[in-house]
Amino acid sequence: MDAPDLLAFDREHLWHPYTSMVDPAPTRLVTGASGSRIHVDGSGWVVDGMASWWSAIHGYRHPVLDEALQRQAEQFSHVMFGGLTHEPAVELARRLVEITPDGLDRVFLADSGSVSVEVAMKMALQHQRGTGRPERTRFLTVRGGYHGDTFDCMSVCDPGGGMHSMWSAVLPSQVFGERPPASDAEVPAWAEGLRALAAEHAAELAGLVVEPLLQGAGGMRPYSPECLRVFREVADEHGVVLIFDEIATGFGRTGTLFASESAGVRPDVLCLGKALTGGYLTLAATLCTDEVARGISGSDSGVLMHGPTFMGNPLACAVASASLDVLATGGWKDDVARINAGLQALHELDAPEVRVLGAVGVVRLDHPVDAARATEVALAEGAWLRPFRDLIYTMPPYVCSDDDIATLCAGIAAAVEAG
């Protein structure tokens, strides 16, 4: 089929994320990708300001990742993980234990970010059962968060302004504190409220789930690192399992390899995904402490009750280790700092609010974005963006050049003006 036929079939039969099948939003045909750019039919080569929803940190067709994928494919592409293991999974687990905060020594390899969070929540629930507190079945979190689209994940997303409010009547009821503040000066008052809330519900809380330092799809809000210390203190005070969802923030996006490093805080459970494979294949990991693992073993089943068909997929594990090889060179630190410097140009825009953190640039308008129009004018500037709600933002590949970042800023400026 030629391009018009492909797009016509797509419109009639393919569901895209958060899109109606009756009145679908426009889609554009990608015919190639290389480095920081994707080739969009009708627009040519444009800078991918989304890094394929924040995952393609090394860009496209990276030779190290390509070679790892091909080498593993020549051996075997997949075997079940039940009763079997293989070098790519073992090596990836070894590397993750090595680079994550000390004590996160147990690794569960899942399919996707949402599944990683589901597994983390199961870990917390089973840990509480295994330590003699089966009545602890609820989770403490904060407003403004987003943790995925699967069922339990939806229950810890923002209950009012988030994407899943229509499901509130059928989701498990969780406990929500206020959004973490951006200013250090506001932390004490916020912390007092969170501590009071945790104390009120302590007897029923299994875990505390948050995105460290940056709330992603719930609103692209950075917050003070001091809040991470408060989360740790609250969890310790009440015997609650602290879960950090670093699916969006992990692997350098906020300026440190993991966002939790900004406050020197170690969670009990860590969720990773998105950039884990450099955007090549779907893979996620849930890491936990030995204490959590022992609690799970003491629960009714004695085992963690989860086991995806494609758990530990060798292709994904091999390319993930290759991505870690690229990160290990350390060049990403300079790249993220350079991107951050380039994104400071967004502060010159006439907009209610601009937020820049690491390799993340966000412009908030005072009204909902006309996403179709904003996308169109950004493409005319050579930038692929995906605005949502009142936000126009970018989380680009680390391999973007200074010219690429300037192009993205021009695209955002055009989208703001078209707003």
UniProtKB/TrEMBL annotation:
One of its GO terms (biological process) is biotin biosynthetic process. It catalyses: (8S)-8-amino-7-oxononanoate + S-adenosyl-L-methionine = S-adenosyl-4-methylsulfanyl-2-oxobutanoate + (7R,8S)-7,8-diammoniononanoate. The keyword S-adenosyl-L-methionine applies. Its cofactor is pyridoxal 5'-phosphate. This is Adenosylmethionine-8-amino-7-oxononanoate aminotransferase. Belongs to the class-III pyridoxal-phosphate-dependent aminotransferase family. BioA subfamily. Pyridoxal 5'-phosphate binds at residues 113-114, 245, 308-309.
